[in-house]
Amino acid sequence: MYSIIDFLDKKFQFTTAKAHCDIPCGIYDPITAQIAALTVARMVDLIDEHHSHSAVQDKEFYNRLVRLITVKEEHSEKVKHEIRIIFGDFIKSEHLEKFPELPLLFHKIMQLGSADKQKSDKASAVELLDKVNRFAEIFWEIKGIKTKKAKAPYAPNLEFVYPEH
Amino acid sequence: MFRIIKVEGESMFPEYNNGDYVIVSRFPLLFNMIKINSVLVFNSREYGILIKKVADMDKAQKRYFFKGTNQMSITTEMIGAIDAKDIIGAVLLHFKK
Predict the structure, then answer these.
(1) Measured between beta carbons, which residues in chain B are less than 8 angstroms from residue A144?
(2) DSSP string spanning A94-151?
């Protein structure tokens, strides 16, 4: 019977139904964005420390300052990139119905990510992490996984949202 | 009312394999015979025509949620809710390669 249908398929080309596999891979986790947001806050601290403790503003001073700013820039952009992927690829319309705050939260993270590239401000960096943590809470709730809050075990020891396993 | 569909991909392995054929119909849908784990072919706005197992049903809103049969499948969350009108049919006959 299979060979008859296969013969007919070659002649008439039946519709194909995809038993889709691992592209997209289904591996999504907001932890990458959370770590990047924490890194932004850490860089702001190190920039402040470097600025206030350096007696001489020589080339070494500027070299380290530029390196700190570069890492802050990269990680602000990384937050935006990671959140954009989850929002675009994982979040579905029914999730937006269930969590109507999501579009504004997403927009706020994009804005804060840009603001944290433009300036070196601790309050803004902390707010970015807060918003990313809220995004993580919603993400895990969608997945049906409970979350807990705990201080990150590394400076600047800000609060993180973790999935409970 | 009946359509022959060719299966492409491995997410329904081991039950359905790449190159298998299925005959589907909307009759089981019209007569409310769809159950959890029924295998349906449907149209997904994002992924095109898919063949998956029913993971859950919202009978009030006539929406279905799907899953593959192995870990490599795209997830129920990724597929999202599928409206009854986007169901092409339930598998009635299966011809293995």
Answers:
(1) none
(2) HHHHH-TTHHHHHHHHHHHHHHHHH---HHHHHHHHHHHHHHHHHHHHHTT--EEEEE
Backbone phi, psi, residue B55, to 5° = -95, -35
Contact B77 A90 (CB under 8 A): yes
Q: What is the ipTM of this complex?
A: 0.74
Note whether B10 contacts A: Cβ–Cβ < 8 A.
yes
Using the Cβ of B91 and the Cβ atoms of chain A, whether some distance falls under 8 Å is answered with no
Chain A and chain B share a number of CB contacts under 8 A equal to 94
Q: How far is A88 from chain B (nearest CA, A)?
A: 11
Residues from chain A contacting residue B9 (CB–CB below 8 Å)? 18-21
In this predicted structure, what is the pLDDT of residue B74? 72
Q: Which runs of E-coded beta strand occur in A14-56?
A: 15-18
CB contact burial A121-158 (16+ within 10 A = b; e otherwise): eeebbbbbbbbbbbbbbbbbebeeeebeeeebeeebeb
Q: CA of A23 to nearest chain B CA: how many angstroms apart?
A: 8
Q: What confidence score (pLDDT) does residue A88 get?
A: 85
Element (H, E) at A32: helix A31-53
Q: Percent of chain A at pLDDT above 70? A: 94
B70 in helix, strand or coil? coil
Are A140 and A134 in contact, with CB atoms under 8 Å apart? no
Residue of chain A nearest B96, judged by CA positions: A2
Give every residue of chain A whose pLDDT is below 50, as ranges: 22-25
To the question of pTM greater than 0.80 for the whole model, the response is no
Q: Which carries the bigger pLDDT value, residue A46 or residue B69?
A: A46
Find the mean pLDDT for residues B45-58.
87
